[in-house]
Write a structure and sequence with these properties.
Blueprint lengths: L4 E6 L3 H11 L6 E7 L14 E2 L3 H4 L6 E4 L4 H13 L3 E4 L2 H6 L1 H11 L3 E2 L10 H7 L6 E7 L2 H12 L4 H10 L8 H4 L2 H15 L18 H9 L3 E10 L5 E10 L12 E8 L3 E8 L3 H15 L8 H4 L11 E9 L9 E9 L3 E9 H6 L9 E10 L1 H16 L3 H7 L9
Parallel strand pairs: 1-2, 1-4, 2-3, 4-5, 5-6
Antiparallel strand pairs: 7-8, 7-10, 8-9, 10-11, 12-14, 12-15, 13-14
Helix pairs in contact: 1-12, 6-10, 7-8
The structure holds L-homoserine (HSE).
Amino acid sequence: MSRELKIGLFGFGVVGEGIYHVLQATPSLNATIKKVCIKQKDKKRNAPEELFTVNASELLEDPEINVIVELIDDAKEAFIISSRAIKNKKALVSANKKMIAENLQELLDLQDLYQTPLLYEASVCGSIPVIRNLEEYYDNDLLQGICGIVNGSTNFILSRMFDDSLSYSEALQLAQQAGFAESDPGLDVRGIDAVNKLTILLLHGYGIVSKPEDHLHIGIDRIHNLDAKYAAEKNVRIRLVAQSKKLKNGRVAAFVLPQFVSNKIQLYNVNDEYNGIVLQSSFADKQFLYGKGAGRYPTSSAVLSDISALRYDYRYEYRKLKNNSENELTDDFYLELYAAFPIRSKVDKNDFEWITEYNCRDQRQYIKGVIHYRKLLETKWVNDASVSLVLCPEGIIENEEVAFREVKEKFWKLAGVAEKKKEVVPDIVLVER
Ligand code: HSE
Protein backbone atom coordinates (compact mmCIF):
# COMPACT_ATOMS: atom_id res chain seq x y z
CA MET A 1 0.00 0.00 0.00
CA SER A 2 1.47 3.35 -1.00
CA ARG A 3 1.66 6.13 1.55
CA GLU A 4 -1.14 8.59 2.09
CA LEU A 5 -0.66 12.04 0.60
CA LYS A 6 -2.11 15.08 2.35
CA ILE A 7 -2.02 17.98 -0.05
CA GLY A 8 -1.78 21.70 0.49
CA LEU A 9 -2.90 23.35 -2.74
CA PHE A 10 -1.88 26.86 -3.76
CA GLY A 11 -4.22 28.42 -6.33
CA PHE A 12 -7.75 27.59 -7.36
CA GLY A 13 -7.77 28.89 -10.92
CA VAL A 14 -8.24 26.88 -14.11
CA VAL A 15 -5.82 24.11 -13.14
CA GLY A 16 -6.22 24.35 -9.34
CA GLU A 17 -9.94 23.74 -9.55
CA GLY A 18 -9.27 21.06 -12.15
CA ILE A 19 -6.98 19.08 -9.86
CA TYR A 20 -9.52 19.40 -7.02
CA HIS A 21 -12.16 17.70 -9.20
CA VAL A 22 -9.73 15.17 -10.64
CA LEU A 23 -8.59 14.08 -7.16
CA GLN A 24 -12.18 13.67 -6.04
CA ALA A 25 -12.73 11.39 -9.01
CA THR A 26 -9.67 9.23 -8.19
CA PRO A 27 -10.08 8.03 -4.57
CA SER A 28 -7.78 5.07 -5.25
CA LEU A 29 -4.86 7.49 -5.28
CA ASN A 30 -5.03 7.87 -1.50
CA ALA A 31 -4.42 11.61 -1.86
CA THR A 32 -6.63 14.32 -0.37
CA ILE A 33 -6.51 18.08 -0.40
CA LYS A 34 -6.40 19.33 3.17
CA LYS A 35 -6.28 23.08 2.54
CA VAL A 36 -6.29 25.46 -0.43
CA CYS A 37 -4.51 28.79 -0.22
CA ILE A 38 -6.05 31.51 -2.36
CA LYS A 39 -5.51 35.22 -2.85
CA GLN A 40 -9.04 36.60 -2.76
CA LYS A 41 -11.08 35.36 0.14
CA ASP A 42 -14.49 36.56 -0.94
CA LYS A 43 -14.65 35.00 -4.41
CA LYS A 44 -17.34 32.34 -4.87
CA ARG A 45 -15.65 28.92 -5.26
CA ASN A 46 -16.89 25.59 -6.44
CA ALA A 47 -15.79 23.77 -3.24
CA PRO A 48 -16.58 23.86 0.53
CA GLU A 49 -15.70 27.18 2.14
CA GLU A 50 -13.74 25.64 5.04
CA LEU A 51 -11.19 24.29 2.57
CA PHE A 52 -9.89 27.78 1.80
CA THR A 53 -7.47 30.09 3.54
CA VAL A 54 -5.46 33.15 2.58
CA ASN A 55 -2.71 32.26 5.04
CA ALA A 56 0.12 30.37 3.33
CA SER A 57 1.58 29.24 6.66
CA GLU A 58 -1.53 27.20 7.38
CA LEU A 59 -0.33 24.91 4.59
CA LEU A 60 3.42 25.29 4.76
CA GLU A 61 3.67 24.83 8.52
CA ASP A 62 1.09 22.07 8.86
CA PRO A 63 3.02 18.90 9.81
CA GLU A 64 0.24 16.72 8.44
CA ILE A 65 0.56 18.15 4.93
CA ASN A 66 3.30 16.23 3.12
CA VAL A 67 2.78 17.54 -0.44
CA ILE A 68 2.45 21.10 -1.69
CA VAL A 69 0.88 21.53 -5.12
CA GLU A 70 1.68 24.99 -6.41
CA LEU A 71 -0.59 26.24 -9.20
CA ILE A 72 -0.51 30.00 -8.91
CA ASP A 73 0.10 32.56 -11.59
CA ASP A 74 2.71 34.83 -10.10
CA ALA A 75 6.17 33.33 -10.65
CA LYS A 76 7.90 35.37 -7.94
CA GLU A 77 5.31 34.46 -5.32
CA ALA A 78 5.43 30.86 -6.53
CA PHE A 79 9.19 30.72 -5.97
CA ILE A 80 8.82 31.99 -2.40
CA ILE A 81 6.16 29.34 -1.69
CA SER A 82 8.19 26.62 -3.41
CA SER A 83 11.38 27.44 -1.50
CA ARG A 84 9.51 27.40 1.81
CA ALA A 85 7.85 24.10 0.93
CA ILE A 86 11.16 22.42 0.09
CA LYS A 87 12.85 23.86 3.17
CA ASN A 88 10.00 22.42 5.25
CA LYS A 89 10.67 19.05 3.59
CA LYS A 90 7.33 18.95 1.81
CA ALA A 91 7.37 17.30 -1.61
CA LEU A 92 6.44 19.83 -4.25
CA VAL A 93 4.48 19.61 -7.49
CA SER A 94 4.37 22.68 -9.70
CA ALA A 95 3.06 23.58 -13.14
CA ASN A 96 4.73 26.97 -13.11
CA LYS A 97 7.14 26.93 -16.06
CA LYS A 98 8.14 30.57 -15.59
CA MET A 99 9.05 30.04 -11.95
CA ILE A 100 10.96 26.85 -12.71
CA ALA A 101 12.82 28.14 -15.78
CA GLU A 102 13.83 31.38 -14.10
CA ASN A 103 15.10 29.64 -10.96
CA LEU A 104 16.54 26.37 -12.25
CA GLN A 105 19.83 26.48 -10.40
CA GLU A 106 18.26 27.64 -7.14
CA LEU A 107 15.66 24.87 -7.30
CA LEU A 108 18.34 22.26 -8.04
CA ASP A 109 20.34 23.47 -5.05
CA LEU A 110 17.30 23.43 -2.76
CA GLN A 111 16.40 19.87 -3.79
CA ASP A 112 19.95 18.73 -3.09
CA LEU A 113 20.22 20.50 0.20
CA TYR A 114 16.89 19.40 1.62
CA GLN A 115 16.64 16.07 -0.22
CA THR A 116 13.05 16.86 -1.12
CA PRO A 117 11.46 16.04 -4.48
CA LEU A 118 10.13 18.63 -6.89
CA LEU A 119 8.11 17.40 -9.88
CA TYR A 120 6.83 19.59 -12.71
CA GLU A 121 5.63 17.45 -15.61
CA ALA A 122 2.68 19.81 -16.20
CA SER A 123 5.03 22.72 -16.81
CA VAL A 124 5.98 21.57 -20.32
CA CYS A 125 3.50 20.44 -22.99
CA GLY A 126 0.57 20.01 -20.59
CA SER A 127 -0.60 16.43 -20.73
CA ILE A 128 2.41 15.04 -22.66
CA PRO A 129 4.87 13.18 -20.40
CA VAL A 130 7.93 14.66 -22.06
CA ILE A 131 10.04 15.45 -18.99
CA ARG A 132 9.80 11.94 -17.63
CA ASN A 133 10.62 10.55 -21.06
CA LEU A 134 13.72 12.69 -21.30
CA GLU A 135 14.70 11.81 -17.74
CA GLU A 136 14.15 8.09 -17.93
CA TYR A 137 14.42 6.96 -21.51
CA TYR A 138 16.85 9.21 -23.31
CA ASP A 139 20.34 8.63 -22.15
CA ASN A 140 22.80 11.37 -22.91
CA ASP A 141 24.11 10.02 -26.19
CA LEU A 142 20.70 9.07 -27.43
CA LEU A 143 19.16 12.48 -27.71
CA GLN A 144 20.10 14.51 -30.75
CA GLY A 145 17.26 16.95 -31.09
CA ILE A 146 14.07 18.30 -29.64
CA CYS A 147 11.65 20.05 -31.93
CA GLY A 148 8.31 20.98 -30.49
CA ILE A 149 5.17 23.00 -30.50
CA VAL A 150 5.11 23.65 -26.77
CA ASN A 151 2.66 26.50 -26.47
CA GLY A 152 -1.01 25.68 -26.92
CA SER A 153 -2.30 29.24 -27.12
CA THR A 154 -0.11 30.34 -30.02
CA ASN A 155 -0.87 27.12 -31.83
CA PHE A 156 -4.56 27.71 -31.26
CA ILE A 157 -4.24 31.29 -32.50
CA LEU A 158 -2.31 30.26 -35.63
CA SER A 159 -4.83 27.49 -36.35
CA ARG A 160 -7.77 29.88 -36.05
CA MET A 161 -6.04 32.53 -38.17
CA PHE A 162 -4.99 30.13 -40.92
CA ASP A 163 -7.94 27.71 -40.94
CA ASP A 164 -10.84 30.02 -40.05
CA SER A 165 -9.38 33.32 -41.24
CA LEU A 166 -9.97 34.90 -37.83
CA SER A 167 -7.99 38.01 -37.02
CA TYR A 168 -5.10 37.76 -34.58
CA SER A 169 -7.06 39.56 -31.83
CA GLU A 170 -10.21 37.47 -32.34
CA ALA A 171 -8.17 34.28 -32.12
CA LEU A 172 -6.31 35.50 -29.03
CA GLN A 173 -9.61 36.34 -27.34
CA LEU A 174 -10.87 32.81 -27.97
CA ALA A 175 -7.66 31.34 -26.50
CA GLN A 176 -8.14 33.49 -23.40
CA GLN A 177 -11.79 32.46 -23.04
CA ALA A 178 -10.82 28.79 -23.28
CA GLY A 179 -8.32 29.23 -20.44
CA PHE A 180 -5.27 28.30 -22.55
CA ALA A 181 -3.58 31.68 -22.52
CA GLU A 182 -1.47 33.06 -19.70
CA SER A 183 -3.08 35.86 -17.69
CA ASP A 184 -0.53 38.04 -19.49
CA PRO A 185 -0.96 36.64 -23.02
CA GLY A 186 2.16 38.52 -24.07
CA LEU A 187 4.05 35.62 -22.48
CA ASP A 188 2.46 33.28 -25.02
CA VAL A 189 2.59 35.36 -28.17
CA ARG A 190 6.08 36.76 -27.63
CA GLY A 191 7.54 33.28 -27.26
CA ILE A 192 8.41 33.71 -23.57
CA ASP A 193 6.31 30.78 -22.38
CA ALA A 194 7.87 28.61 -25.10
CA VAL A 195 11.41 29.62 -24.16
CA ASN A 196 10.69 28.92 -20.48
CA LYS A 197 9.63 25.43 -21.50
CA LEU A 198 12.68 25.04 -23.75
CA THR A 199 14.92 25.96 -20.80
CA ILE A 200 13.36 23.12 -18.79
CA LEU A 201 13.67 20.68 -21.70
CA LEU A 202 17.37 21.51 -22.08
CA LEU A 203 17.97 20.56 -18.47
CA HIS A 204 16.28 17.18 -18.76
CA GLY A 205 17.37 16.50 -22.35
CA TYR A 206 21.02 17.46 -22.12
CA GLY A 207 21.80 18.42 -18.52
CA ILE A 208 22.18 22.06 -19.54
CA VAL A 209 21.32 24.64 -16.88
CA SER A 210 20.51 27.91 -18.59
CA LYS A 211 18.32 30.97 -18.21
CA PRO A 212 15.41 31.71 -20.57
CA GLU A 213 17.13 34.92 -21.64
CA ASP A 214 20.13 32.90 -22.91
CA HIS A 215 18.03 31.76 -25.87
CA LEU A 216 16.71 33.67 -28.84
CA HIS A 217 12.93 33.71 -28.65
CA ILE A 218 10.75 35.32 -31.26
CA GLY A 219 6.99 34.88 -31.00
CA ILE A 220 4.07 35.02 -33.37
CA ASP A 221 3.15 38.62 -32.61
CA ARG A 222 5.30 39.76 -35.53
CA ILE A 223 3.66 37.48 -38.11
CA HIS A 224 2.03 39.51 -40.87
CA ASN A 225 -0.87 38.55 -43.17
CA LEU A 226 1.54 38.49 -46.08
CA ASP A 227 3.67 35.90 -44.29
CA ALA A 228 0.57 33.75 -43.96
CA LYS A 229 -0.11 34.27 -47.66
CA TYR A 230 3.46 33.29 -48.47
CA ALA A 231 3.12 30.12 -46.36
CA ALA A 232 -0.15 29.19 -48.11
CA GLU A 233 1.48 29.67 -51.52
CA LYS A 234 4.30 27.35 -50.51
CA ASN A 235 1.89 24.82 -49.02
CA VAL A 236 3.42 25.04 -45.55
CA ARG A 237 2.07 26.15 -42.18
CA ILE A 238 3.62 28.57 -39.72
CA ARG A 239 4.05 27.15 -36.23
CA LEU A 240 5.88 28.45 -33.17
CA VAL A 241 8.63 25.91 -32.60
CA ALA A 242 11.00 25.51 -29.67
CA GLN A 243 13.98 23.47 -30.71
CA SER A 244 17.41 22.23 -29.88
CA LYS A 245 19.88 20.26 -31.94
CA LYS A 246 23.10 18.58 -31.01
CA LEU A 247 25.43 19.67 -33.80
CA LYS A 248 28.17 17.57 -35.35
CA ASN A 249 30.72 19.28 -33.09
CA GLY A 250 28.78 18.06 -30.02
CA ARG A 251 27.50 21.50 -29.03
CA VAL A 252 23.82 22.28 -28.69
CA ALA A 253 21.89 24.90 -30.67
CA ALA A 254 18.66 26.04 -29.01
CA PHE A 255 16.07 28.74 -29.73
CA VAL A 256 12.37 29.52 -30.25
CA LEU A 257 11.23 30.84 -33.63
CA PRO A 258 8.15 30.67 -35.81
CA GLN A 259 8.90 28.09 -38.48
CA PHE A 260 7.49 27.02 -41.84
CA VAL A 261 6.37 23.47 -41.31
CA SER A 262 5.80 21.23 -44.31
CA ASN A 263 3.34 18.34 -44.44
CA LYS A 264 6.29 15.94 -44.40
CA ILE A 265 6.72 16.38 -40.66
CA GLN A 266 4.39 15.53 -37.82
CA LEU A 267 4.22 19.07 -36.46
CA TYR A 268 2.22 20.05 -39.56
CA ASN A 269 -0.79 18.23 -38.17
CA VAL A 270 -0.54 19.65 -34.66
CA ASN A 271 -3.46 22.06 -34.52
CA ASP A 272 -5.47 24.06 -32.01
CA GLU A 273 -4.28 23.83 -28.40
CA TYR A 274 -2.47 20.57 -29.06
CA ASN A 275 1.27 20.31 -28.53
CA GLY A 276 3.60 17.99 -30.37
CA ILE A 277 7.22 17.21 -29.80
CA VAL A 278 9.60 15.32 -32.04
CA LEU A 279 12.56 13.76 -30.27
CA GLN A 280 15.42 12.85 -32.54
CA SER A 281 17.56 10.06 -31.20
CA SER A 282 20.83 8.65 -32.45
CA PHE A 283 19.61 5.18 -33.26
CA ALA A 284 15.81 5.20 -33.28
CA ASP A 285 15.45 8.18 -35.63
CA LYS A 286 12.43 10.28 -34.73
CA GLN A 287 9.80 9.77 -32.04
CA PHE A 288 6.74 11.92 -31.81
CA LEU A 289 4.79 12.80 -28.67
CA TYR A 290 1.42 14.44 -29.14
CA GLY A 291 -1.32 15.64 -26.82
CA LYS A 292 -3.19 18.57 -25.38
CA GLY A 293 -0.77 21.21 -24.18
CA ALA A 294 -3.09 23.54 -22.31
CA GLY A 295 -6.45 23.67 -20.61
CA ARG A 296 -7.90 22.58 -17.27
CA TYR A 297 -8.00 18.81 -17.49
CA PRO A 298 -4.98 18.08 -19.72
CA THR A 299 -2.79 20.08 -17.33
CA SER A 300 -4.50 18.56 -14.27
CA SER A 301 -3.77 15.12 -15.65
CA ALA A 302 -0.02 15.84 -15.62
CA VAL A 303 -0.25 17.27 -12.10
CA LEU A 304 -2.14 14.15 -11.05
CA SER A 305 0.55 11.96 -12.55
CA ASP A 306 3.21 13.79 -10.49
CA ILE A 307 1.14 13.45 -7.32
CA SER A 308 0.76 9.77 -8.06
CA ALA A 309 4.51 9.37 -8.65
CA LEU A 310 5.22 10.88 -5.24
CA ARG A 311 3.46 7.96 -3.59
CA TYR A 312 6.39 5.87 -4.77
CA ASP A 313 8.98 8.51 -3.86
CA TYR A 314 9.76 9.22 -7.48
CA ARG A 315 12.11 12.12 -8.07
CA TYR A 316 14.07 13.49 -11.01
CA GLU A 317 17.62 12.27 -10.88
CA TYR A 318 19.02 14.88 -13.30
CA ARG A 319 21.43 12.19 -14.45
CA LYS A 320 22.79 14.10 -17.43
CA LEU A 321 23.61 17.08 -15.25
CA LYS A 322 25.05 15.03 -12.40
CA ASN A 323 27.08 12.75 -14.69
CA ASN A 324 28.79 15.81 -16.15
CA SER A 325 27.50 15.19 -19.63
CA GLU A 326 29.46 18.28 -20.76
CA ASN A 327 26.78 19.33 -23.18
CA GLU A 328 27.20 23.01 -23.93
CA LEU A 329 25.19 25.57 -25.81
CA THR A 330 26.64 27.22 -28.87
CA ASP A 331 25.90 30.24 -31.01
CA ASP A 332 28.18 29.07 -33.81
CA PHE A 333 25.86 27.72 -36.48
CA TYR A 334 23.71 29.05 -39.31
CA LEU A 335 19.99 29.43 -39.89
CA GLU A 336 18.02 29.51 -43.08
CA LEU A 337 15.60 32.31 -42.35
CA TYR A 338 12.78 34.21 -43.99
CA ALA A 339 12.79 37.86 -42.95
CA ALA A 340 9.95 40.09 -44.13
CA PHE A 341 9.84 43.81 -43.50
CA PRO A 342 8.27 47.07 -44.56
CA ILE A 343 10.26 49.14 -46.98
CA ARG A 344 11.28 51.60 -44.28
CA SER A 345 13.13 49.04 -42.18
CA LYS A 346 16.71 48.27 -42.93
CA VAL A 347 17.38 44.59 -43.16
CA ASP A 348 20.85 44.43 -44.59
CA LYS A 349 21.29 41.74 -47.21
CA ASN A 350 24.98 41.70 -46.36
CA ASP A 351 24.14 40.11 -43.02
CA PHE A 352 23.26 36.96 -44.96
CA GLU A 353 25.85 34.48 -46.22
CA TRP A 354 23.72 33.86 -49.25
CA ILE A 355 20.19 34.53 -50.36
CA THR A 356 17.92 31.85 -51.75
CA GLU A 357 14.82 33.93 -52.46
CA TYR A 358 13.72 37.53 -52.32
CA ASN A 359 10.75 39.61 -53.21
CA CYS A 360 10.27 43.36 -53.33
CA ARG A 361 6.53 43.82 -53.10
CA ASP A 362 5.07 47.25 -52.72
CA GLN A 363 4.19 47.23 -49.05
CA ARG A 364 6.58 44.62 -47.76
CA GLN A 365 9.69 42.84 -48.89
CA TYR A 366 11.24 39.59 -47.88
CA ILE A 367 14.57 37.87 -48.00
CA LYS A 368 15.10 34.18 -47.53
CA GLY A 369 18.68 33.30 -46.89
CA VAL A 370 21.32 31.80 -44.69
CA ILE A 371 22.66 33.83 -41.79
CA HIS A 372 25.07 33.03 -38.99
CA TYR A 373 23.13 32.73 -35.72
CA ARG A 374 25.53 34.99 -33.80
CA LYS A 375 25.33 37.60 -36.54
CA LEU A 376 21.53 37.45 -36.41
CA LEU A 377 21.61 38.15 -32.67
CA GLU A 378 23.82 41.17 -33.28
CA THR A 379 21.64 42.77 -35.97
CA LYS A 380 19.37 45.68 -35.08
CA TRP A 381 16.51 44.15 -37.01
CA VAL A 382 16.29 40.93 -35.00
CA ASN A 383 14.41 42.91 -32.34
CA ASP A 384 12.50 45.14 -34.73
CA ALA A 385 8.78 44.47 -34.27
CA SER A 386 8.10 45.37 -37.91
CA VAL A 387 10.33 42.54 -39.15
CA SER A 388 8.76 39.09 -39.19
CA LEU A 389 11.16 36.19 -38.90
CA VAL A 390 10.28 32.63 -39.80
CA LEU A 391 12.70 29.72 -39.85
CA CYS A 392 12.75 27.59 -43.01
CA PRO A 393 11.80 23.90 -42.72
CA GLU A 394 15.32 22.46 -42.43
CA GLY A 395 16.40 25.65 -40.77
CA ILE A 396 19.56 24.75 -38.86
CA ILE A 397 22.59 24.70 -41.14
CA GLU A 398 25.80 23.18 -39.85
CA ASN A 399 29.11 25.02 -40.31
CA GLU A 400 30.42 22.21 -42.49
CA GLU A 401 27.66 22.76 -45.03
CA VAL A 402 28.55 26.43 -45.30
CA ALA A 403 32.26 25.62 -45.62
CA PHE A 404 31.45 23.09 -48.33
CA ARG A 405 29.45 25.67 -50.24
CA GLU A 406 32.34 28.13 -50.01
CA VAL A 407 34.69 25.53 -51.50
CA LYS A 408 32.19 24.93 -54.28
CA GLU A 409 31.95 28.66 -54.96
CA LYS A 410 35.72 28.91 -55.24
CA PHE A 411 35.61 26.05 -57.70
CA TRP A 412 32.93 27.82 -59.77
CA LYS A 413 35.01 30.97 -59.76
CA LEU A 414 38.07 29.11 -60.98
CA ALA A 415 35.95 27.46 -63.62
CA GLY A 416 34.81 30.93 -64.75
CA VAL A 417 31.11 30.61 -63.93
CA ALA A 418 30.99 33.23 -61.18
CA GLU A 419 29.25 35.80 -63.41
CA LYS A 420 26.47 33.37 -64.25
CA LYS A 421 25.91 32.66 -60.56
CA LYS A 422 25.60 36.35 -59.81
CA GLU A 423 22.65 36.57 -62.17
CA VAL A 424 20.86 33.84 -60.24
CA VAL A 425 21.14 35.75 -56.97
CA PRO A 426 20.65 39.35 -58.05
CA ASP A 427 21.57 42.31 -55.95
CA ILE A 428 18.65 43.70 -53.93
CA VAL A 429 18.03 47.24 -52.81
CA LEU A 430 16.77 46.94 -49.27
CA VAL A 431 17.34 50.44 -48.01
CA GLU A 432 14.73 53.04 -47.29
CA ARG A 433 13.16 54.67 -50.29
N1 HSE B 1 -0.35 29.36 -21.85
C1 HSE B 1 0.18 28.04 -21.92
C2 HSE B 1 -0.02 27.50 -23.32
C3 HSE B 1 -0.51 27.16 -20.92
O1 HSE B 1 -0.83 28.09 -24.04
O2 HSE B 1 0.62 26.53 -23.69
C4 HSE B 1 0.08 25.80 -20.78
O3 HSE B 1 1.42 25.85 -20.38
